[in-house]
Amino acid sequence: MTSLTSDKLVGTPGVIERISPATGQVVSREIAHDLSDCLGFVSRAAAAFPQWSGLPIEERAQHLIRFAECLVARQDSLCEAMIDEIGAPRAWAEHNVSFAVRILQGVAQQAEVLSSPEVIQTQQNIVSEAYRVPCGVCLGIAPWNAPLILGIRAIAAPLLCGNVVLLKGNEIAPATFRMIGDAVRDAGLPDDVVQVFLCPQEESENIVDALIEHPVVRRVNFTGSTRVGRRVAELCAKHLKRPLLELGGQAPMVVLEDADLDLAAAAAVKGAYLNQGQICMSTERLIVHDSVADALIDKIEALRKALVVGDPRDPATDIGPVIGVGAAERLGGLVSDAVSKGARLIGGSGIRDAYFEPTLLDGVETDMRLYSEETFGPILSVTRIRSDQEALTVANDSQYGLTASVFSRDETRARHVADQIHTGICHINRCTVDDDPNAPFGGVKASGYGRFGGRWALDEFTELRWITRDKTP
């Protein structure tokens, strides 16, 4: 992918422009690929597959390590691109780089697991083993909110497994995704083993459909909205291809009456407002025992009021703009709906262009849109409960099931509650926003299926073969 910076390219067909949500100015211009380009990428990837899959696993792992080093070398420019394109505060942009490096390093460490066949106990005169083998061409589709983390996650495990990868970047962060392609080149990976491409928004759906339908594409991994994820799943089912889907979330945080309220308040503020609440793991629903709700709300509000809203380029800024003016207006509509139906606005909800003030509401009930819709913005809603069972009922009353957390000083009690929350991930006395490259990451219900991370990702990006041989002379 080639960066285009000439002012003459403004409005030129075949070019994606990104306007900063913070300044309203054009901050990046990148080449947009059409369907013909993308079909060519598929053919070239297929041609590159035999050589790449034939490399020793340890050699593929070393390529990932060099890839990580190239990201470190590009840290400053990557951070600048994320700050400009998505309004990420500098700390979030830097976290994207460091965590993407950890993903590549962690996946590389799985080489030994991947290279070891599993021996199956059977008759004495038969050697019976299960092997993981590459699938072929993998299509990855990554979103804008954590572009480096989620872009690299779509690449790393498929590559180690011996697959070749087409990564569709998001047009909201075009320069960031182009830089991923630049780092691939700098890392010395063979030509066409990884191809990063961008599509014009109006052509994106047709191009993705064509790539999923293409007989050469054997795996699809998608991170994004549940609405689009359903369409990806339907197409994959039609063509008998296995997708890995990490979709929307509406993370509940349960605070029982014996919880450490200072710990819970800090976790709630981080979980709700980090990256303007634009994280699939963001804490959206605070489910708190009525006896401690007032005290906890007071602590959260004090922390919320101390957050600095401003220019994401300023290191002192905690909260930058949301992704666009339309997103801010949608968030304002969610708050207005809740307040009109009886919720109490504790603080926040101010709107200025794409800036939406971090917001806290109490008394959110089932008839309010905030109760059931994914917010994907800096809004924390409080629903009060009076028992563990009621907390579970509210926590599980959601179509989503990605992550959750439970706060209690009684770890046995907290684990009992955590075990009954219908999510793929649950943390005890910790923030809902948490990830580890070596842990199985993914959700249930409308949050998708399959798992990124650690040895579990190897199952997603390989075919399992059973090989036997007779030991008899």
Summarize the structure.
The chain is of the alpha/beta class and 473 residues long. The protein contains 16 helices and 22 strands. The chain has a seven-stranded mixed β-sheet with strand order 12-15-16-11-10-18-19, with helices on both faces. A six-stranded mixed β-sheet has the order 7-6-5-8-9-21, with helices on both faces.
Please give a structural write-up.
The protein contains 16 helices and 22 strands. With 473 residues, the protein is of the alpha/beta class. A seven-stranded mixed beta sheet has the order 12-15-16-11-10-18-19, sandwiched between helices. A six-stranded mixed beta sheet has the order 7-6-5-8-9-21, with helices on both faces. The N and C termini lie far apart (56 Å). The relative contact order is 0.14. Mean pLDDT is 95; it is low at 1-11.
Layout of helices and strands:
Elements: E1 15-19, E2 26-31, H1 35-54, H2 57-73, H3 75-86, H4 90-108, H5 111-115, E3 118-119, E4 126-134, E5 137-141, H6 147-160, E6 164-168, H7 174-186, E7 194-197, H8 201-213, E8 217-223, H9 226-238, E9 242-246, E10 251-255, H10 261-273, E11 283-289, H11 290-305, H12 325-340, E12 344-347, E13 351-352, E14 355-356, E15 359-362, H13 369-372, E16 379-385, H14 388-395, E17 400-401, E18 403-407, H15 411-418, E19 425-428, E20 444-445, E21 448-449, H16 454-460, E22 462-470
Parallel strand pairs: 5-6, 5-8, 6-7, 8-9, 10-11, 10-18, 11-16, 15-16, 18-19
Antiparallel strand pairs: 1-2, 3-4, 4-22, 9-21, 12-15, 13-14, 17-20
